Amino acid sequence: MKTRAAVLYDFDKPLRVEELELDEPKANEVLVRMMANGICGSDLHAIKAELPVSLPMALGHEGAGIVEKVGSAVTKVKPGDHVITVYNPFCNACEYCLTGTPYLCANWSAGTLEGILPGGDFRMRNANGDGIRQWCYLGTLSEHAVLSEMSVIKVDDDLPFAPISLVACGGATGFGAPFNRAKVQPGQSVLVLGCGGVGSFALQGARVAGATTIIAADRNDFKLEQAKLHFGATHTINTEREDVVQRCKELTRDGQGVNHAFEVISTPETIGQAIEATAKAGTTTIIGMMQMDHVGVPMNPTMFVALHKTLYGSLYGASIPQADFARYFDMYRSGQLKLDEAITREYTLDQVNDAFADVVNGTNLRGVVRFD
Q: Which SS3 state, helix, strand or coil, does residue 149 take?
């Protein structure tokens, strides 16, 4: 069958929206008609060659859609089911999957940048017959996609596709960092440094966990306004005009700094600021992805010993999709998790390069490509 998809052929070049030939699903695969796909900064890292991805690659990994066909061995879903994608699938057999960290799956996680489905071949081909890789085994910036059944989670039919697509990556990554990974406690203080799409969900994770002082820091006034209006920030800091570390000390008890700092931008400077803004016995959690070959962060390691601080990394917000996605959607229904408010603009597939330009320009919290 035919599909149209956004394909990366050259780094730092616009994506090419083109018609591709799409194979039928194999035994353990499903054909999904995509309905919505969130625009995530991780795709931008691929476009800018900041991650070691192979090309050509169909991008997109924050997808939601409807199953149209299933392979002969598929047991998790059936035609007509509504699904959300999982950008880091899981085997349910390795040590990591069996000990509660399936987002670190030993059998799947290593191949996300290669973009070749199990079996070692391609499901998408261009007009020249060249195989097209699928970003994170997905490539959901496509009208249709053939995916492993391990890459989809069934969701309730009443959930709207555009907002729930955000949970597939940015929502789970941001919300889960304070809620699951750092385990923020009621009454604690939190700094979120970087308040775009992922940061807006980190603010919400802190709010739902019970934090009472929630500081949003960014250089973009629009994002700071939204942080306070919708996502739970009690205070805001414009990093272009104010000193983040000093303001955090002024806003916290006895000038100690925050109990938890969440760094979403992932530059050496902002990581250093987050660590310095963290109080004694506090925790700094890095959420953002830095260029893979970058080394060095301005910090004094003695701080972690003398001040008993902890430094975490957080992948996927330590979310377990099979269990946590249903909880997140219940929070969405109850109004605790704001998904609609995180969508600044919707796009068509043909506007996909505009969508990524808006990420670079900082005009969106989250954009969504809709296929309906």
A: helix
